[in-house]
Amino acid sequence: MTPALSTKVTKVVLTSPNTPVTNSKGTVYYSSDLTIWTDGSNDINDSSTPGVDGSFYVASVDVALTTTNLAVTLAADSNYSTVDFKLTGELRGYTVASADKCRVGVANNVPLSAKHPGTPWGHAGDIQWTLIHPTTKDKYPLNKTRVEIYGLSSSLPDFLKSPAVPVLFLRYMALPEPKGDWQHWVATTCMTDFWFRYDTTEGRPRFVTSYLGGSFKLTSWLKSMFTRARVNSFDQAGIVQIANCLKDGNPANTWTVSYPFGYLNKTQLVGEGQSNNPFFENDLAIRCIDQLDPRREPFGAHAFIVLGGNVLDASLGPHTGTETLTAYETNVIDQSPQVWTRWTETSQGVTSLDQTSTTTASALTASPSPALPDPHPAMEAVNRAMEKGLVAAAPDPAFSNADWRAIEPLLAARFSLRPRMHNMDVGAFGSEAVWLFVQDGTGIVSTLTVAVCGDHLSALRAMREHLGAYQRDLDDVFVRPTPADAKGQLNLESANISVWVRGDTFFVLDIDYAAPGLRARDISRAVDDFIAQSAVATPEQALAPVIAGVPERIGPIAAGGQFAIRLEASDVGFMDSHSVGFNALRLSKDLDTKTFNFLAQRPGEEEIILYFAHATTARTVSARVAVTVE
Question: Which ranges are annotated Low complexity under compositional bias (predicted)?
Fold first, then answer.
């Protein structure tokens, strides 16, 4: 009689993980041999994403590998200490791990299969382990272990490494089974799966910061999924570009902008259905209209991605990498002479393309892009808009000590707008807060973005770059406010949007056109009056964090070792960090203790920049620490 088997899996280790991944708590677990599951641990399972059986010990491997090794430790059993069992692991009915010779009481190398080598993939859930006796073929079901592992490019661009790739992005892009090839999957998924809708009023950008791409606010994008937020083609091009990096790493010269783009043939518009007139606002009767109807409007500018000579576009179509640029233009743009003679700005369909690299087009948090080339066709309209927005007899630029936390009760009391989400990014650019407000009774979402830039010139630059990424002609979007409505030093208004600069702060208020009884100029006036009440004249009078105890240098630290930076700081509400050389990986941060924990990844000199934003004014200060990794 075969004795009963008394063993179980006690530990699972991923050997040689690839790119670090930030879990849903903002923590990174990373080492050369990463323990991803241990028996008796209560802090592994992560159920924060609906439909995903995730793990807080999330990791990645090289997408090019067909298998990667797990070190699976089995508890000892004296009856079978010399028996070579076969060990299998099943996830959702499929065998994902298997080794022919495994012994109890030791760690065994068990290959984990990739879903589809070369294309980003993910395993998330509870692996059911089973031992199979080599001679009797008896099967011994063991326990389950939670895993969350992704296959990603080993050459991700640096902006996805500081601090690390967010797991939520991977859960929606790499975890599902791609349908078709990766480019097709990315373009289709980004256009259809996240409930974003084209901004049919102004074609304004929401997640990019510049005409040339600038930075992509991935954190804010992730929080805005499934809220039916408005986007434009610059936003869609940015997210497509980042998603393609998961497979292809950092391909150069993919960000493509055409200005002017032109009138559209009838095509699918992200979140809005068929249209040849993208700025139909809320009038469905003119979403598709006659070719020569005077109400028909073109795209002033349009952004998309070109990879390997073929076009990816998740705002129109989608276009999934099967068309050359010439074919794409023919399919999308109405190039009939009758149409083009109506556009007085140009007599040609598509002008020269302007391309930038991925590194200037995307990042995890907002930051200023390089200055836009000037003169440039897109900048001519921006320059006119900036001149139009100058406020006559404006007050001198000042700073505000207003408590940003009071914005939420202010808008709730006066306009029945309830906060749905608040996101704060802190970095070299200063700070940027984004609120989503839901109107009582309708559920319609509006957005307020407040960027504290540090000085007046930086705030003006932020506004200029923002205006450059509108798709509708700025002359048709914005008007100069009346003297009674004017705010700050520079202010532009449309029916639904207010953009203005007061001192060192840039504001964008976007009221959904379907929200009854709400006017952007009324709400922006309330916000601006609140800010102006607490104005101070000099930066020395402005409330900002006070930090002390900054070490000039740390190290040498052995590669693979961990270290912490802890500062003395007061009045800090938000903090972040950036590793300039990417030789140190931030594992976690603790606002209460003002502590950052890092892993020394690879030898070299490193500079770590620490950013702190004031708890009430969101004004930022920074500190630099040199680190030697050997």
Answer: 351-369
**Element of type H or E holding 322:** strand 319-324
Bond prior to 373 in cis (omega within 30° of 0)? no
From CA 574, how far away is CA 59, in angstroms rounded? 26
In 404-504, DSSP assigns E strands to 417-427, 430-439, 445-452, 490-493, 497-502
Report the alpha-carbon distance of residue 558 to residue 629 in Å, rounded: 6
Residue for token pair 């009963």: 4
Do 420 and 437 touch, CB atoms closer than 8 A? yes
CA distance 591 to 475: 45
Please report how the helices 456-467 and 377-388 are oriented relative to each other, as an axis angle in degrees rounded to 10. Answer: 130
Q: What is the mean pLDDT of residues 225-253?
A: 88
Contact 257, 211 (CB under 8 A): yes
Q: What are phi and psi of 142, to 5 degrees?
A: -105, -155
pTM, entire model: 0.90
Let me know: does 562 contact 597? Beta carbons within 8 Å: yes
Amino acid at 457: L
* 11 DSSP β-pair partners: 38, 73
Q: List pLDDT tens digits, range 127-160.
A: 999 999 999 999 999 999 999 999 999 888 777 7
pLDDT tens per residue, range 177-224: 776 789 999 999 999 999 999 999 999 999 988 777 667 888 889 999
Cβ atoms of residues 487 and 499 within 8 Å: no
**Category of 317 on φ-ψ map: left (φ > 0), alpha (ψ -120 to 50) or beta:** left
Q: β-strands 595-600, 604-614: how paired? A: unpaired
Contact (CB, 8 A) for 398 and 457: no
CA distances from 551 to 212, 330, 356, 541 (A): 37, 59, 37, 27
Q: Retrieve residue 411's tokens.
A: 């808008």
CB atoms within 10 A of CB 549: 11
In the three-class reduction of DSSP (H, G, I as helix; E, B as strand; rest coil), residue 157 is classed as coil
What is the DSSP code string of 502-562? ETTEEEEEE--TT-TT--HHHHHHHHHHHHHTTEESSGGGS---EEE---SEEEEE-TT-E
Q: Which domains does the chain have, with CATH numbers?
A: 9-152 (no CATH), 158-370 (no CATH), 399-540 (3.40.1000.20), 546-629 (2.60.40.3450)
DSSP class of 160: G
- Tell me the HSE value of 577 on the side-chain side, using a 13 A CA sphere: 31
